Amino acid sequence: MSDLTYERPRGRRTENLSHVPYLPGLDGMRALAVLAVLVYHANAEWLAGGFLGVEVFFVISGYLITLLLMSEWEEHGRIDMMAFWGRRARRLLPALFTMLFLVLTYTWIFEWEALGRLRGDFLAAIFYVSNWYQIWVGQQYGSAAEFEPLRHLWSLAVEEQFYLIWPLVMVLFLKRSGTRKLGMTARWLVLAALLITVATAFINYGGSVGTCETTPDAYWTVGDRCISKQNFLYLSTITRSSGILLGAAFAMVWRPVAIMRGPLRKADRLLDLVSLVGLVIIAVSCWWLSFKPGLGTNSFLFRGGFLLTSIATLFMIAAVTHPYTLSARWLGARPMVYIGTRSYGLYLYSWPIYQVLKDPTRAGLTGWQFLIGIVATFVLAELSYRFIETPIRKRQFGVWWRGLRRRRDPVPRMLATGTMFGCVGLLVAGSLFMSLADVEKSANEQSFEENEGATTDLNDLLGGDTATGTTAPPVATGPTTVPDTVPGETTTTTSSTTTTTTTTLPAEPVDYLAIGDSVMLGAANELSERGYVVDAQKSRQFGEIVPAVQQLVEKDLIGDSPVTIHLGTNGPIEEEDLNALLDALSPPKYKNVLLLNVRADRSWTARNNALIAAADSRPNVIVVDWANRSYECTGNCFAADGIHLSSDGVTFYANLIRSYTGR
């Protein structure tokens, strides 16, 4: 990109109307976008829609790359593909490979267990297919607390795929109509962006997304693999290309040099107003929109939210590419330009640094962690920009090395050589360890798999229908003795052997019913051995169980023994759902309904626990204060996320429930 700035037009005109002068206001826009993303990645509760900063990047990329290709065609009558791709490689690869090297080295030294899981992400990053890899493998449930340092590279993959394909497409357009008639082509790009928006609106699954089994309409099935529709819409190059296409279309009709030769050169005040409207739209969208598949993503996001953000970005581009606007002056100020020129490095390094700093028991960073992370990110991005990205982009490494060799003092040369050999050694060692490492499942994933066989799907009881593959509670083959204990003591059994069998569930009342989410799922084996019928599922929301329980009560398929319910970990509880459930399980038949409250550092926890506490006013409801009683557990009680149960936690959990139910 040229470093020239605008001057007021003089008598002579240059021939290249698509010439791209240096536009500092675009760096200012990049600064705003990357700051929004940095806050969002640190803690989504602080700025729920901060991810829209990536959409701003997409639009700017579409605009600038298209303008650069048009300028090259207009100046030379051709586009040198190899030179274009070479410039992109020199701009993007050095920082990416540096980040990958640092992540790999840190992981095999400090996060050995994650090395096998890193392999797929690492290879996908090298070949710029991270978005498709993440769509295919999905974000494994229970891995939120795991070390996942490369998950942010999906957006770079989208852009790189655009850089690879778009020059070829532009050559076809330019050969057909040249730069002067691309305005007609722009209409087709706008139409394509609108069609993509319409398609995403139809494909999008509204509401909260659970597992493939609980919300099958939220997934596509490819063989034995479930592909999340929302993940596809959010990550795929196809569905996220609408912003890029709009940016490209705008470049075809809004060329800064050409604009300054027409009547719009005097429209600076109008453009400032348009830019302000765009900024307000983006700011409100970042505050209002959210992407939380497990809780129910804001429905407008895939039904015009991304499109609106892209259009608002175009409003701002129109202003900052005009040299006389206040927008160009303010967003082109030195602090904004400084951040904008380093935005790539800031985005690249921030996520791995956050992953190192985060507390797995929390949903995001704390204020102090964020401050430390931001300082570390800016320092690392600056070092990368000065000593890696800029020298390679400007081809200065060769000059530096030749100068080093000519120096009489051998010490600098020896230090440089030693550093390079050391880095190569670390890279080789890390690569070897990563290639040989096993892909270890997280502790939560292992626990879920071990306990799922002890659960029962209550929907299979409705109507007394037999469901193939329904698992009945384990049947004890020998006498089992469970002595009276207090919560936290170890439960001993004598002559207990159990077998899990696949049988037909009888159409008769179920006693000692326990309904829960993944927290209860971790204790399903223990509860089942004690005689509970457990229906616990991953990602379950409170409202999902209400219709099934109501129907089971109507059909008299729930016995009069205590009913245990532990939900609310995965999202907000609606008061009407809680009331509907407790109305169904009302006295005189149901004398004891246990409600366990929530232990989780989530934004909805306090409200959920308040609703559960209020339910204690009902005569048959017993509120179990799991949020506080869980801290009485000693030993290996919880997984790294501080929510799900480990071995001692399972025993404590089951004993705590037994202290109320007697079983």
Automatic annotation (TrEMBL):
The entry's keywords: Membrane, Transferase, Transmembrane, Transmembrane helix
Transmembrane intervals: 20-40, 46-71, 92-110, 153-174, 186-205, 238-258, 270-290, 302-324, 366-385, 414-437
Biased composition, class Low complexity, residue ranges: 454-503
One Pfam short name: Acyl_transf_3
Alphabetized GO MF terms: acyltransferase activity, transferring groups other than amino-acyl groups
Region Disordered, residue ranges: 444-503
GO cellular component: membrane
Domain Acyltransferase: 24-381
UniProt entry tagged with the keyword Transmembrane: yes
GO biological process: lipopolysaccharide biosynthetic process
PANTHER family (UniProt xref): ACETYLTRANSFERASE, ACYL_TRANSF_3 DOMAIN-CONTAINING PROTEIN
The protein's name: Peptidoglycan-N-acetylmuramate O-acetyltransferase
Organism phylogeny: Bacteria, Bacillati, Actinomycetota, Acidimicrobiia, Acidimicrobiales
